[in-house]
Amino acid sequence: MTRTTYSAVAIVLHWAIAIAIVGMIPLGFWMHNAIDARETQAQAIAAYQLHKSIGLTILLLSVVRLGWRIVNPPPPLPAAMAAWEKFAAHAVHWIFYALIIALPLSGWIYVSAQWRGDAPLNVPTLWFGLFNVPHLFALPHAALETRAAVADAAMEAHEVMAKGALALLVLHVAAAFKHHIYDRDHVLAAMVPGLDRTAAPDARRRLALIAGFAAIFIATISAIWAFASPPHAAPIEIAADEAPYDLPHTYEPPAPATPTEPAPLPRVGVLGNPPAAQAPAAQDSAPPAWIVDEAASEIAFTGTHAAVAFRGTFTSWRADIRFDPDNLAGSRAVVTIDTASARDGVSLHEQSLAGREWFDVANHPTATYRTTFIRRREGNEYQALGVLTIKGRDIELDLPFTLTIEGDRATMTGQARISREAADLGQDSDADAHYVSRRIGVEVRVVANRAP
Ligand code: HEM
Hints:
Blueprint: H1 8-34, H2 41-71, H3 83-113, E1 115-116, E2 119-120, E3 125-127, E4 131-133, H4 144-183, H5 203-228, E5 289-292, E6 298-305, E7 308-314, E8 317-322, E9 332-338, E10 342-343, H6 347-354, E11 366-378, E12 381-390, E13 393-406, E14 409-419, E15 439-450
Antiparallel strand pairs: 1-2, 3-4, 5-8, 5-15, 6-7, 6-15, 7-10, 8-9, 9-11, 11-12, 12-13, 13-14, 14-15
Helix pairs in contact: 1-2, 1-5, 2-3, 3-4, 4-5
Bound molecules: protoporphyrin IX containing FE.
């Protein structure tokens, strides 16, 4: 028996994909503009992940739908339709099938190229935050020119197809209404369960129906274009001193030197211990070892991403500490941090941090900080000079810190800042600090017990 309506599976897939696409078009245009405005950058970053997640779901559903369509032929078009109308209807349907697969696929190819504008990108695609979607055709490993060319072509196609889908949608909806209102055939009812196709509306009902449909249609299209218009926000300008992108207010830079303070230590041109002549003479007895109380200690990193402050910690690190306030020359600390343990609760950040451009955990699983010289500033204020070895690079890093020792328990807190450029962090995709602050704060709190 020839069916007169679509199957339940075809109807559910049709409406799910249609609603998703109608939402995706304004979302795509909005985020494309919003990513470059400071006020909306953080929301745009979330919108990109949402757009990609919904888009990939549309791709999956579209493949299922096409398979279903091939195996389950739809109800025939009304016999009364002219041949050209039937041809046009079939053509629009097949172009739609091509679009709902090629459009999301072009988006996937675009993000796989990891290139935007004139710079490479390093942004994973997390499907609704649940898992990392692989990039296609190993594109991130291709030559930069290839990635740029692929990204440009894919986004051009993405935009043209999205606009084409919108135009086709207008045609498609108009045709469906025409069938229902003028031809009074089963075409729309075949896709809308419960729609009464036998009722013959009188002239006034028909007029009201037309006006109602027209109003809904115009409102939908206007809403799409209203959402699609660029946000009225100032483009991001990066100030030379990076004031708005600098560390969040929790960071207090070390106090400037006071006249009563001893002259600053001479900085050595090369890394290593200061010349022996300048270092206080080491005492005979070696400073005691201190065992870190992990539960009470923390190494945190701070900064801003899309003008929003973040604070994360390294959940795995260890420290070899020998310290005696009366024997600073013999005191030292070596801290080893597992770079894969960086956590700030935002899976997008955590995935990116592990990548080649940031901590490159595959090739550099640890970063190390070694003090080269410790001196007392005044009271319980100290300063450690040291070397941070990160991604195979040595960076001089001063760590001013406060220390209190009560019996056999010591509490040390210190703060420092690291230049992303010096540490080679995020230099491919964000060297000009468009997204992430130029400097990263480090906050250290170590509570340790004197070894027996
Ligand atoms: C049927 C599904 C989809 C529709 C209707 C759609 C629609 C759009 C539209 C209208 C834009 C704005 C284009 C422009 O401003 O020039 C856009 C941008 C974008 N789309 Fe899609 N898209 C879909 C699927 C996908 C998928 C599956 C992905 C990736 C996995 C994706 C990734 C992107 C990205 C990253 C942009 C922004 C490009 C940029 O600003 O650099 N899209 N999309």
